[in-house]
Specification:
Elements (H helix, E strand, L loop, with lengths): L12 E3 L3 H6 L8 E4 L7 H8 L6 E4 L1 H5 L5 H19 L5 E5 L28 E8 L4 E3 L4 E3 L4 H11 L5 H9 L6 E3 L6 E2 L5 E5 L11 E3 L10 E5 L1
Parallel strand pairs: 1-2
Antiparallel strand pairs: 2-10, 3-4, 4-12, 5-10, 5-12, 6-9, 6-11, 7-8
Helix pairs in contact: 2-4
């Protein structure tokens, strides 16, 4: 398996050398993304090919489905990696999901702010939490530095459109409206932004938006895909 080039040495990204370091390192001093670089053995493409395309955009995989695949030795190595990563996260009291993704739904009526996963966005939670993710096959997730992006709701023209949609004033109720519709979690990259790839095989832990977070959330998105692109094999928690 050939990993994609690792992200640039941005100050917001810290590379770690083990799962333990990935889970125990605190986010501080502007670091909001931890990357455990890995070069994984095994044929993940074979796993995806044998899963086929049932017509569903996203298929969630479990141990039974993976173990039922008639894989070669290289495919078996890939499956062992997937099962080991699921166990790592579950043993850490997380609830990981492994998906084979042929496509994501897009906003049918995006309005002033697109809110699908192809838009740069931040994850959020009411309490301290983090997002873990790893792409094993297909286009990898992408990130952008916080200083290279702006919340769409803070762009005057977009905010004016949202106020028209809200049919009210720019007050606490309007801010609640933005939050309830996740408009305040989506970002527009600046004209000189250089999005970075999360790469293949690398396991990430990224900061999300929650009350009292010491760092801003990691802004990221699902990669833009084209018809004919390989299906994604993605672990997320």
């Amino acid at each position: 398996m050939t990993p994609l080039t690792l992200p640039p040495d941005y100050a917001c990204i810290k590379r770690v050398n083990s799962f333990r370091e990935l889970t125990t390192t605190r986010f501080t001093d502007g670091v909001n993304a931890l990357c455990w670089p890995r070069t994984l053995a095994g044929d993940f493409g074979e796993v995806v090919a044998l899963l086929g395309n049932s017509g569903e955009a996203i298929t969630t995989l479990d141990e039974a489905r993976l173990n039922s695949l008639p894989v070669s030795a290289a495919g078996l190595i890939a499956i062992d990696v997937l099962l080991a990563d699921l166990k790592l996260l579950r043993d850490h009291e997380l609830d990981p999901i492994l998906n084979c993704i042929h496509g994501y739904p897009r906003d049918e009526e995006p309005g002033p702010v697109p809110t699908d996963v192809f838009s740069f966005h931040a994850d959020s939670a009411p309490v301290e939490a983090y997002t873990y993710l790893c792409t094993y096959h297909g286009p990898a997730s992408e990130g952008v530095r916080n200083e290279d992006a702006q919340r769409r709701v803070d762009i005057p023209a977009t905010r004016a459109e949202l106020l028209k949609l809200f049919s009210g004033e720019d007050n606490a109720d309007f801010r609640k409206f933005l939050n309830e519709n996740c408009y305040d979690l989506h970002y527009a990259p600046g004209p000189h932004a250089q999005p970075f790839s999360f790469g293949l095989g690398n396991l990430w832990r990224i900061a999300i938006e929650y009350p009292g977070s010491p760092v801003p959330p990691c802004i990221h998105r699902a990669p833009a895909t084209q018809p004919g692109d390989a299906a994604r094999l993605l672990l997320i928690s």
